[in-house]
């Protein structure tokens, strides 16, 4: 456990989780960056269907960690569950490597990825929480660096997989290009597992009590059976958009009910923290509706209405593949994260670190500015195409907002939720994110292109209308977050008064 005297430093333990998470993100974002266009160009889906299928898959990918967190906390251990999830994800990406355009294979592969992510995601985050347990000052910085780290993996993969698709496709056929690019995601996860096996000693003292007990064969077989059932349930949901809609909205009611139950049944000293976590989780749902546009409307906008040439003062630098613009998100995360960490640490030493709720309000404001940037860029569009630099600055503000909201979402759970329900609540947080991923695909379909529209000038107006609406919604979210600041500050003070911070396990900086 994290409260024991560790045989290695916090930094080395953190680095082990950080690296396997980085490779997991390499696989996930390498797949995500291509998935919507793959469904449209290879499987013949119209844009609205591709958006909704991906939205349903993303919802399940983020929802299953609620189960995986419980499995890690109570059944087989946090470390074991994380590694199992990485192995299952490797299998899922390998299935996408198979050169077939059968939608059923795609649905089953996504089902395997959904299950693997459910095991992996909450337990990786919970290990970081356990490494820095009791250190409220540095936990925001730790999770921000963690967030930057995983974006290194996504940055590399979102650059590489479109290039692999084009390179292999030009030489060995279009179909081989798509599936080889997906295969690269599997190779990334395999490298992550090898790296973990070499560094696993650094996490030997971190985990849940179940990590210290042997896994009974009956339990292992039961988990295998439940996982296979979940794969087929997920595949069914993905091929039925009605089933997906029902499941997403039902999940929203369930997670809200669980939050209410935990708040009502918790000890008085825990209640303020749980209420604060609920309010911030609801705000997170709104943020991820914006975030979901990256793989859907912003991706299709780049396909249709962006000049792919990067030029400076009339000098051509290079061209990007449309899907690669999603990479701007990861690039900005890596650039901005150290700046925010420096600010957090400096303000923390002065005792003036802003509250998580205040950072959420700033984040929504940044997102609003980001979406308005596309409308500004459209004013100087040529033949219905905006400059590539419009995408750079739009993603820049959008990514700053992501760091302030999503980057601190996990830290919010770690700070406000009692340790005994940490894994489950990490999972509950991801369920909320999953709901908003599906809602985001519904929102993206407001810019669904009618079949008779082929002219970029016409499609530009449709996309910019959506982005401007999202900008105004971002402003509304900012105003609401600011209005709620006094309530959030009172809840935070009540929580702090009832919970004297434990001494840090180790004084070393991340």
Automatic annotation (TrEMBL):
Pfam family, one: PTR2
Transmembrane segments: 22-40, 52-72, 81-98, 104-120, 141-164, 176-198, 218-237, 243-262, 274-292, 330-348, 360-383, 395-417, 429-448, 460-485
InterPro entries recorded: Dipep/tripep_permease (IPR005279), MFS_trans_sf (IPR036259), MFS_Transporters (IPR050171), POT_fam (IPR000109), PTR2_symporter_CS (IPR018456)
Topological type in the membrane: Multi-pass membrane protein
CDD domains: MFS_DtpA_like (cd17346)
Compartment(s) where it occurs, according to its Swiss-Prot or TrEMBL record: Cell membrane; Membrane
Domain of life assignment: Bacteria
SUPFAM superfamilies linked to this entry: MFS general substrate transporter (SSF103473)
Keywords: Cell membrane, Membrane, Peptide transport, Protein transport, Transmembrane, Transmembrane helix, Transport
Family, per entry: Belongs to the major facilitator superfamily. Proton-dependent oligopeptide transporter (POT/PTR) (TC 2.A.17) family.
The protein's name: Peptide MFS transporter
């Amino acid at each position: 456990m994290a409260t024991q005297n560790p045989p290695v430093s916090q930094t080395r333990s953190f680095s082990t989780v950080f690296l396997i998470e980085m490779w997991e993100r390499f696989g996930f974002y390498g797949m995500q960056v291509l998935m919507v266009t793959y469904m449209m160009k290879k499987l013949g889906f119209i844009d609205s269907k591709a958006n909704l299928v991906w939205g349903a898959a993303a919802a399940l990918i983020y929802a299953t960690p609620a189960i995986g967190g419980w499995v890690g906390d109570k059944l087989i251990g946090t470390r074991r569950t994380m590694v199992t999830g990485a192995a299952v994800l490797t299998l899922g990406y390998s299935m996408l490597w198979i050169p077939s355009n059968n939608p059923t294979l795609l649905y089953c592969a996504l089902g395997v990825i959904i299950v693997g992510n459910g095991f992996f995601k909450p337990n990786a985050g919970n290990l970081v929480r356990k490494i820095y347990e009791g250190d409220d000052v540095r936990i925001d910085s730790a999770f921000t660096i963690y967030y930057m780290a995983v974006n290194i993996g996504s940055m590399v993969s979102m650059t590489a997989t479109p290039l692999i698709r084009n390179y292999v496709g030009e030489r060995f056929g279009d179909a081989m290009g798509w599936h080889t690019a997906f295969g690269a995601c599997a190779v990334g996860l395999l490298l992550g597992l090898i790296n973990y096996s070499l560094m696993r000693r650094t996490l030997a003292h971190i985990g849940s009590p179940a990590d210290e007990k042997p896994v009974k064969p009956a339990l292992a077989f039961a988990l295998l059976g439940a996982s296979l059932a979940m794969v087929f349930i997920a595949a069914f949901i993905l091929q039925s958009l009605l089933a997906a809609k029902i499941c997403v909205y039902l999940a929203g009611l369930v997670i809200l009910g669980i939050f209410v139950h935990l708040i009502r049944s918790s000890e008085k000293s825990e209640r303020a923290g749980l209420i604060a976590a609920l309010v911030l989780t609801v705000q997170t749902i709104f943020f991820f509706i914006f975030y979901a546009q990256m793989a859907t409307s912003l991706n299709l906008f780049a396909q249709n209405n962006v000049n792919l040439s990067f030029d400076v003062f009339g000098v051509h630098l290079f061209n990007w593949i449309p899907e690669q613009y999603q990479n701007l998100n990861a690039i900005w995360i890596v650039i901005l994260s150290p700046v925010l960490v420096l600010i957090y640490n400096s303000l923390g030493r002065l005792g003036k670190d802003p509250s998580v709720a205040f950072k959420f309000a700033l984040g929504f404001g940044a997102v609003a500015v980001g979406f308005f940037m596309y409308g500004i860029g459209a004013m100087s569009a040529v033949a219905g195409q905006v400059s590539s630099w419009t995408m750079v600055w739009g993603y820049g503000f959008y990514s700053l907002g992501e760091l302030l909201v999503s980057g601190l979402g996990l830290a919010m759970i770690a700070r406000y939720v009692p340790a005994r329900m940490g894994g489950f609540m990490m999972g509950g947080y991801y369920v909320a994110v999953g709901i908003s991923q599906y809602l985001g695909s519904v929102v993206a379909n407001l810019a669904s292109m009618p079949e008779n529209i082929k002219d970029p000038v016409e499609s530009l107006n449709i996309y910019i209308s959506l982005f401007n609406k999202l900008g105004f919604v971002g402003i509304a979210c900012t105003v609401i977050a600011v209005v709620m600041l006094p309530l959030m500050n009172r809840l935070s003070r009540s929580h702090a008064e009832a919970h004297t911070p434990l001494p840090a396990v180790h004084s070393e900086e991340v």
